[in-house]
Amino acid sequence: MEINALAREALVNAGGIIESSFSPRKYANELCADAYDKQWRFDQQALPADLIKRGMAVEDSSAPHGLKLTIEDYPFANDGLALWDIIKQWVTDYVNYYYPEQTLIESDLELQSWWTEIRTVGHGDKKDEPWWPLLKTPNDLIGIVTTIVWVTSGHHAAVNFGQYTYAGYFPNRPTIARTNMPTEDASEEVLEKFWAKPEEALMQCFPSQIQATTVMAVLDILSNHSPDEEYLGENIEPSWEENDVIKAAFERFNGRLKELEGIIDERNTNKNLRNRCGVGVVPYQLLKPFSEPGVTSKGANPKTLGQLVKFVASMIIVFLTATVDTMKHSWGKIQVSFHGNKFNIAWRVMKEMINLRKQHYRVIETGLEKETIKGYAHRIIGGRDNIGGVKYEADFDVSIDDFGMVGAILVENEHHKEMFINNIVLHGFPNGSINVTCNSWVHSKFDNPQKRVFFTNKLREEDLKNVKGNGEGERKRFERIYDYDVYNDLGNPDKSHDLKRPVLGGKERPYPRRCRTGRPRTKTDPVSEQNSASVYVPRDEAFSEIKQITFSANTVYSGLHALVPSLQTALLNPSLGFPYFRAIDSLFDDGLKLPPTKIEQGILRNVLPRLIKTVKDANDALQFEIPDTLDRDKFFWFRDEEFGRQTLAGLNPCCIQLVKEWPLKSKLDPEIYGPAESAITAELIEREIKGFMTIDEAINEKKLFILDYHDLLLPYVKKVREIEGTTLYGSRTLFFLTLDGTLRPLAIELTRPPMDGKPQWKEVFTPSWHATAVWLWRFAKAHVLAHDSGYHQLVSH
Questions:
Q1: What is the CA radius of gyration of the chain?
Q2: For the PLAT domain, which residue ranges apply (predicted)?
């Protein structure tokens, strides 16, 4: 939730990084909503369903994972399906243990409420769609949970952590195209300039210097793993570790993930798998479960983290709450252990006291009031756990006759600052200890007098009421309220009319909901919400202190807003492109010297320490690390085979799809967008594959594949072209599956709809060794890659 807040603050906001540097500029979020409306379905977020939908696999019970891939060497799918099966088996073990009978699923009101809320509130604009899975059986729950775990782990890793590796050298993945194709309504003067200096013309099509360097810095940040990252399957929750069945299931899960690591390593050394192995090819390891931080291998230096954050804890009040039980227990003393901050941060606390005052708390299940117990706590000398937390202990004398089973523990923080509680362990029970997993911040009673409740196994209803919002009031930082709202905070109309943005969410523009903040409406637009210095997220959803230092909303926001003015000052002309390829290479060799203005360089050194290099004259230089792809092969981005390979093993490997029908036709209204038939003809394709087979044979044998951004982008072409220094087309790119299992690009079609009194324009470009045609092909590839980059950032990611 905090990364979503960060994005609204500095990335997808009006005039932010995405709108400034990616296609289709200020309409980026509208396009994202368009894609959600037309393409998104929950059931197709499951990897097997996604592959089948795109024609990249068919069901086959005899094949590995029950699917036969259309392209056998498809690294994203090969590794992804193995990971999917491992996740599904883990989820199955847990679900079958907790829900051994089918009737338990439908009778679990809290579970049903959770799924109903996802469908009818979180995705309220699609709540009536027929494809939503039912939740009536254990298998239903297994499918739903596996999909959610996959999207937030495997899928996200595949499209996020390789960003700098694949896009750090921006000619490989330009984020925007600034000039039209030289052949579109071209005058003799334009064509002559293109013929005379094609490299210079291509450089003008690429992103400007400020667009490229800003995006490169942002991708470097986004590609990083936080030093406190927890990998899926790495550590079991302490409360689950006490259950032998669940612990065994987790250990099997962990073991399978480790086996997958070895399988992926072996695949990456198999020279027969040309989509993941070869001279200069970066091994595909984005889905390695416990790999070093992705393919980027970056992270903050842990030695400096202890110097960055300090945390002071103080007085806490804890209440034991019991439920009446007909059975009597001869308890002795109950020992409560408090783990403090869960991160390796020193607590400088001389003396702490936990005062257990006598209070009354109404027990929901019984309606009876039980008196809480008084005691004192002390810090254990040398009492640190293996993650640096501080331990406290308190002893309680419990009446054998009067006190029932402990249902919950209420915590009140008397200090003026919040405190993080990792877990609470109750010792002294006949059947063993009770481990209450908290992993939560406890607010100060001076911010909110309401006590925090941590449950053993009961009394959840009251807490659920406390965290559900009612759509009213502005949220405070210390609160844990979870509520929903539309995306009406992306614009800034009070600052400028040009920064006004439409609301995402609702009948006009369907979209998922965000976390409600309740900020006041803007003065000039009653439907828009005001911006603020920080964006509310429920306290337990906020980044850890370590992550806030390395990747927080404030530091990234400050860094980006210090970086952009510095770049503007250094580059002078924001629309200036790179003059030639050697100038791009100099970003990695020499860096870009930044001017010594105000305190911005100090901010940049702290936020982007790997990129900001100090030079001899005491100024700073923005010097980028060489991406692994470029370091292995300086001309990797130039090769058509690499262009095709990255659709299967690159940054956006989930958009390539099988061509199932011919001829290719648009589904848009021809009265508005022109003739629907594609200009890519059967004769052209058969010529490009050298008569190897007919078009019908190629389709029947599943040899043709396509990247199709035609219908999604074409409605935006006219309005995007009204923005200075930007252009757009609808595009289709066709590939042929060769005998060695690689994809060879065959043709790129670029289309402009009727506009400004001109008819529809479309042209097909093909690979060529002819001097003029090969440069036109490079131009066309730059446009398609900009389309793919925009779709990746706005939809896939």
A1: 29
A2: 313-456
In this structure, of 253-262, 555-564, 640-649, the range with the lowest mean pLDDT score is 555-564
- The tokens of 277 are what? 């192995």
Q: Token digits for 474?
A: 């502005």
592 touches 570 (CB < 8 A): yes
pLDDT single digits (tens) 527-552: 999 998 888 998 888 776 655 555 54
The pLDDT tens digits of the residues spanning 468-503 come to 888 888 998 888 889 999 999 999 999 999 999 999
pLDDT at 327: 31
107 lies in the same domain as 64: yes
- Statement to judge: residues 196 and 279 lie in one domain: no
CATH number, domain with residue 77: 1.20.245.10
**Paired strand residues for 409:** 320, 454
Answer yes or no: do 201 and 125 share one domain: no
User: Does residue 302 register a pLDDT over 60?
Assistant: no
CA-to-CA dists, residue 704 to 189, 388, 747, angstroms: 38, 56, 11
Record the tokens describing residue 484, joined without a space: 């929903």
Q: 522: left (phi > 0), else alpha (psi -120 to 50), else beta?
A: beta
- Would you say residue 304 lies in a domain? no
- Residue 526 included in any domain: no
Closest of 41, 36, 37, 55 to residue 133, by C-alpha: 41
Question: Residue 674: which CATH number?
Answer: 3.10.450.60
Question: Which of residues 602, 634, 666 is at a domain's end?
Answer: 634
**Shared domain check, 687 and 781:** yes
The CATH number assigned to the domain holding 318 equals 2.60.60
pLDDT in tens, 638-667: 999 999 999 999 999 999 999 999 999 999
* Residue pair 486/506 in contact by the 8 Å Cβ criterion: yes
More confident residue, 339 or 319: 319
Domain count, the chain: 4
Domain-located, residue 662: yes
Q: How far is CA 786 from CA 148, 208, 578, 790, in A?
A: 29, 13, 17, 6
Q: What are the C-alpha distances in Å from 12 to residues 16, 163, 518?
A: 6, 17, 20
Instruction: For residue 416, give the 3-state DSSP assignment.
Output: coil
Residue 463: partners with Cβ closer than 8 Å, 6 or more residues away? 453, 455
Q: Cα–chain-centroid distance for residue 410?
A: 35
- Report helix, strand or coil for 440: strand
pLDDT for the residue 757: 95
Q: What is the CA angle 160-711-158, rounded to 5?
A: 15
Please tell me whether residues 576 and 628 are part of one structural domain.
Answer: yes
Same domain, 781 and 655: yes
Give the range of the structural domain holding residue 330, as residue numbers without chain letter: 310-467
- Longest CA pairwise span in the chain (Å): 99
According to DSSP, the residues that pair with 68 across neighbouring strands are 58
Whether residue 203 is found in the same domain as residue 336: no
Residue 527 has φ and ψ, to the nearest 5°, of -95, -10
Percent of the chain with pLDDT over 90: 56
Last residue of one domain, picked from the residues 599, 634, 669: 634
**Would you say 339 and 389 are in contact if contact means Cβ atoms under 8 Å apart?**
yes
Q: How far apart are CA 298 and CA 457, in angstroms?
A: 41
CA distance 18 to 25: 7
Residue 28 lies in a domain: no
Q: Do 26 and 14 touch, CB atoms closer than 8 A?
A: yes
End-to-end, the C-alpha distance of the chain in Å comes to 15
